[in-house]
């Protein structure tokens, strides 16, 4: 890992301990999984995970048509190319030393609003957590983690890392809980 990346992770880890991420608040309407815009967020730690996600994207779209994908790579060298527009891909290089999004990420965050965010992020990466916090989504769902419970509106405990099983659980609970946000 480059020295600059180590410094960024260290600084932002300390900042997050001193000033935790804000709690997400909901706007006040019913969640509609079938008609709403949904963003799937993945935090990858290997090149293989990225290639698996590229293959799985078509299968995810067959389950629900209005999906957007964002991938956060824990190391910039994991993403060598993003030849298609299936994913919006970001890494630590898209943040400043103080954890402020740089121009391209800031533009993407400003131009996109989603009804539901489904997070598949398992890692404790401070930048991935910051990205989850910055994405403009009315309702945020993620895997249960005691440290990140305030970051989501709904957390679900899983014992699997299979993306399809997690996706099916998320959709099942969103459809059956009749959630008003």
Structure, explained:
The chain has 181 residues and is an alpha/beta fold. The chain has a domain at 3-21 and 34-140: Rossmann fold (3-Layer(aba) Sandwich). It is 36% helix and 19% strand. The chain has five helices and six strands; from the N terminus they run αβαββαβαββα. The chain has helices at residues 3-18, 47-63, 103-111, 126-134, 163-176; strands at 38-44, 67-73, 87-91, 114-119, 137-143, 154-156. Strand 1, helix 2 and strand 2 (67-73) form a beta-alpha-beta unit. The chain is globular, with a radius of gyration of 16 Å.
> Which class of the domain at 3-21 and 34-140 in CATH terms?
Alpha Beta
Low-confidence stretches: none
Strand order of the largest sheet: 3-2-1-4-5-6
Shape verdict: globular
What is the averaged pLDDT score?
Answer: 80
């Amino acid at each position: 890992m480059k020295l600059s990346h180590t410094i960024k992770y260290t600084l932002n880890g300390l900042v997050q301990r001193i000033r935790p991420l804000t709690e997400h608040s909901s706007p006040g309407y019913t969640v509609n999984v079938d008609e709403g815009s949904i963003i799937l967020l993945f935090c990858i730690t290997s090149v293989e995970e990225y290639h698996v996600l590229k293959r799985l994207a078509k299968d995810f779209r067959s389950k629900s048509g209005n999906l957007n994908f964002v991938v956060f790579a824990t190391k910039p060298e994991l993403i060598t190319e993003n030849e298609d527009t299936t994913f919006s891909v970001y890494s630590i290089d898209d943040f400043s030393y103080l954890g402020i999004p740089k121009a391209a990420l800031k533009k993407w965050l400003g131009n996109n609003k989603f009804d539901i965010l489904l997070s598949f992020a398992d890692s404790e990466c401070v930048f991935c957590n910051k990205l989850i916090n910055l994405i403009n989504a009315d309702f945020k769902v993620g895997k249960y983690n005691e440290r990140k419970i305030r970051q989501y509106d709904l957390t679900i405990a899983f014992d699997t890392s299979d993306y399809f099983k997690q996706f099916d659980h998320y959709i099942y609970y969103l459809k059956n809980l009749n959630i008003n946000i």
